[in-house]
């Protein structure tokens, strides 16, 4: 990590060093390191799901709103899922923010 962001070159150097020296349990070390990298990438990636394609202005507004708390430099993935009926579902790492009609109907059904 450099300035709270993943440094890909350092990650490659670390993997190369482990592969070259082959310490005891190096396969487990590399597997664990790969898992940590995946978690860090997921923490910095926002997946935005909506029932229909969002206009560029709305995509930009969502990106601006999410850039502050995720910083630095998150990735954004916009997808469509008609089953959501309406609204937006945002996932950043393990956090899910569900403002969809489908999510509200499910919550209503569970409370009944």
Structural class: alpha+beta
- Rg (CA only): 19 Å
The strand order across the widest sheet is 2-1-3-4
Strand portion: 15-25%
Q: Tell me about the biggest sheet?
A: 4 strands, mixed
Would you identify the regions where 5 or more consecutive residues have pLDDT less than 50?
A: none
Shape: elongated
By DSSP, the count of extended strands is: 4
- Number of helical runs? 4
Name the helix and strand elements from N-terminus to C-terminus, one letter apiece: HHEHEEEH
CA-to-CA gap between the ends?
47 Å
Helix content: 40-55%
- Average per-residue pLDDT, rounded, comes to 87
Tell me about this structure.
The protein has four helices and four strands. The mean pLDDT is 87. β3 (88-92) and β4 form a beta hairpin. It has 112 residues and is of the alpha+beta class. The protein has a four-stranded mixed sheet. Helix content is 52%, strand content 19%. α1 runs antiparallel to α2.
